[in-house]
Input
Amino acid sequence: MKKRIISGVVLAVLIIGLGFTGSYPLWMMCLLCSVIGYMELTAVLCRSASSKKKGIPPRWNARPDLIAMPGLILTVVYFAGLMYIEWRYGLVNREGMIMMSDFWTSMLLALDFLLTMVVYVYTFPRRRSVQAAGAVMSFFYMPVMMAFICRTRNLSHGLFLYLLIYICASVSDVCALAVGMAIGRHKLAPVLSPKKTIEGAIGGIAGSALVSCLLALVVQYFEKGTHVLPLFLIIGICGSIIGQTGDLAASAIKRNNGIKDYGSLIPGHGGIMDRFDSIVFTAPVIYYLSFFLSSRL
Output
């Protein structure tokens, strides 16, 4: 527990510090986390059939399987391209910057699929379709979803929206745990996560919405004339729901593959995938909600 608390405090300081810094330091940290998270996930999803038959548990490997190499290389290319787009259009997400970022993302996703299929085809039957699918899924799951943390930071009110990503994930998790322990009776996903309850999930949503509204009031106090309360309320609710779903999704993959944690990089928390499982789900939701609703509410 002591290690978990210390690691949590260090992570919180790092996250807040990078939020204030923004730009390239944040991009580089997200790139590093994406690479590690991608390797953790492909170690689970791209295991060979022989490893499964022998009962060898999946583990992070500094030398990933060949089927995962296209995604690993393209992760660096993807973040380099997004950093170039930021440099080209400036630090505030404008329409052209958003269009170019989405185009670049679509192109890299297609390229990752094609290159992964090339490896699959020309190493057949040593590698199976499930490994190829796992590699493509891992590229979308970590690098692409993780990049939305940085992209959100570049929106109007970017620092506060960036903080909302972590508020929707972390505050929701804490409130869900507290309410679930206090009054939880009905299981949310009894097979997947027996300790999670419907009451806890509702408490998590309420806690996320409340803190998001408090943050909106802070924004409106310091930035006179802004009215972000409705937007932040919607983000708090939707972010909590999708964040809890992301947590369960990562747990489902672990249960399917018989592991407790994806890694051991962060003492008391596990790997990057264990710590960012709900955050990478929340970031794209907040990004697109902010972009589409900020001028309509």
